[in-house]
Amino acid sequence: MILRIVFLSAFLLFSYHCLAQSTNELDAALPEPRAYIPDSQYLDFVYHDHDDLTRFLRATSARYPNLTALYSIGKSIQGRDLWVMVVSSSPYEHMIGKPDVKYVGNIHGNEPVGRELLLHLIQYFVTSYNTDQYVKWLLDNTRIHIMPSMNPDGYAVSKEGACDGGQGRYNARGFDLNRNFPDYFKQNNKRGQPETDAVKDWISKIQFVLSGSLHGGALVASYPYDNTPNSSPLGVVFQTYSAAPSLTPDDDVFKHLSLVYAKNHAKMSRGVACKSATPAFENGITNGAAWYPLTGGMQDYNYVWYGCMEVTLEISCCKYPPAYELKKYWEDNQLSMIKFLAEAHRGVQGFVLDPTGTPIERASLKIKGRDVGFQTTKHGEFWRILLPGYYKLEVFAEGYAPREVEFIVVEQHPTLLNVTLTPSKRVEGTTVPFYRPLPIPQQQQHYRPISPTYSDSGIFSTISSGLNSLYSNIFG
Ligand SMILES: [Zn+2]
Questions:
Q1: Distance CA 189, CA 390 (A)
Q2: Residue 150 burial (CB < 10 Å; 0-12/13-18/19+)?
Q3: Do 332 and 380 sit in the same domain of this protein?
Q4: CATH code, domain carrying 374
Q5: Ligand 1 geometric centre to CA of 446 (Å)
Q6: Please, how many CA atoms are within 13 Å of residue 84, restricted to the half-sphere of its CB?
Q7: For residues 128 and 135, what is the distance between their CA atoms, to the nearest angstrom?
Q8: Domain of 151: which CATH number?
Q9: Active site annotated at which positions (predicted)?
Q10: Which residues surround ligand 1, an ion (CB under 5 A)?
């Protein structure tokens, strides 16, 4: 035991010195980000249609070529580009060891506050990099991908001032994109839409560590799971937000991430109800399924398939508030949006290597006791957000002997962990010793790694999905 402690202490000291070279200590030592002075010369607090949004992104990438890179992950049904802007001190390529994080806005076309705030976040980052230590630290150590609108077609038919309702929520074919992903618990028969397929392809290519999906219609940070193996079709009506929670093995982390957003927000953590008939959320956070279960949501997919911790951020009671309120929304959310991204630097990160120091791609990793796994990148990198504590990392790769490595996570900085695997004697017939959510076989439409007991057909299922869609039209 003593030996173990000595080893871990030495290791931590080592990891600290390594990390101190590349990443500053987690934001503790830095002053708070400064308030943003809106640069109205380039970006007013008004809603930007697709052409204006495109112009702003293009102009920004031309003006700040060392801090931004603009790319499109595909097109909407009506041919609008699904733009992503990278903001980072290394915008053009992934730097080995530097985590990629993302924000996705406007997946529901009629919830555009996030869409506008993401433009302001871009503007804030590029104009503050040289003057704000916190922003400089964040951009030097993180590659931030910002997609202001995942549903530009829906936005095009939405109406400013429409606080409720579903007009513009869906894509141009009438699909709810946040019900269009493969589901962990239930078969999702919805046909994959171009916008969803583009996002699935995007997150299969970049190992995102952390993500926020911005919505409107409520004021709460909602974390996985969104679905549950045993959702009651009547629970939605009779229990409203007291439905049973569906918790992930990383529930402590998801609660923490949600609280980081809520507590840095001007109002969210007060848990004030948007209207008298809507729920008030304790501390401004909720488990998704406890609020209302849904099938095919984006956050569960990010987490289960790719190990990306995504939280759904509902940032406005009114789905499409008048433009004159946008400045206030920015002020309410600015600190939350920045602090949330910094959480990518909490936990453990490192490399899985063979004895010659060559990276092992697609090694499967799992934190012992947390049965949702993750994988290494082609550079052998991995990241996992964890709260301070003692953990064991289980590592498996085809053709190598599995390994279990102990480590400690502390509050101030991420733990750096390099794992060397030795080739196993017997490669043929090796059984995978633990859960591997990746990769998704191409021919497999629906991925159900566990066998929950549920009835996926019949009248209750129909009632349930009907009520859920009604419920989600009312809220975010
Ligand atoms: Zn929404």
A1: 41
A2: buried
A3: no
A4: 2.60.40.1120
A5: 23
A6: 23
A7: 7
A8: 3.40.630.10
A9: 314
A10: 108, 111, 215, 476
Range of the domain at 319: 31-345+461-474
Kindly report, residue by residue over 160-185, the tens digit of the pLDDT: 999 999 999 999 999 999 999 999 99
Tokens read off for 375: 């994988």
pLDDT averaged over consecutive 10-residue blocks of the chain (476 residues)? 45 40 51 63 88 96 97 98 97 93 98 98 95 94 97 98 97 98 94 98 97 97 93 49 86 98 97 86 96 96 97 98 97 97 97 97 97 96 98 97 97 94 71 40 34 33 47 60
Q: Cα of 408 to ligand 1 centre, how many Å?
A: 37
DSSP conformation class of 32: P
pLDDT, position 26: 57
Residue 314 catalytic? yes
- Global pTM reads 0.85
Ligand 1 center from residue 200 Cα (angstroms): 18
- Distance, CA of 174 to CA of 194 (rounded, Å): 12
Q: What ranges in 293-376 are assigned the alpha helix state H? A: 298-306, 326-342
